[in-house]
């Protein structure tokens, strides 16, 4: 999909931390550049330099996610609270709207992830 090795590694670290049930930490909600963007080769000073379309896509994904979860940009939330909120408010098919335009949507990986999260969360 054209991701740089440094971006892939950064995403791997972020996902590992989020999946680690033993770790709970603060997450600041950002509509725009965030920790994942720090390793992207298209990171500009204030927007994605890949293209205006790329920047708009990322901003749309952020906005729809924040809106669906009822979060406040700039708000700080515990990871455990965000996971619980995701389990309670996001259904796999919600990603068709929340993640509209994301190239990963067609692979269903995230839909399967949401379904698995909900299943595992209910067991615990």
UniProtKB/TrEMBL annotation:
It comes from the Bacteria. This is DUF1284 domain-containing protein. It comes from Bacillus salacetis.
């Amino acid at each position: 999909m054209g991701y740089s090795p440094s971006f892939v590694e950064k995403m791997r670290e972020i996902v590992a931390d989020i999946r680690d049930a033993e770790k709970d930490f603060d997450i600041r909600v950002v509509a725009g550049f965030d920790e994942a963007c720090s390793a992207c080769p298209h990171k500009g000073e204030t927007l994605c330099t890949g293209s205006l379309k790329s920047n708009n896509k990322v901003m749309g994904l952020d906005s729809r996610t924040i809106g669906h979860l009822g979060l406040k940009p700039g708000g700080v939330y515990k990871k455990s609270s965000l996971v619980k909120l995701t389990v309670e408010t996001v259904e796999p098919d919600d990603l068709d709207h929340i993640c509209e335009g994301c190239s990963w949507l067609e692979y269903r990986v995230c839909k399967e992830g949401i379904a698995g999260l909900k299943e595992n969360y209910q067991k615990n």
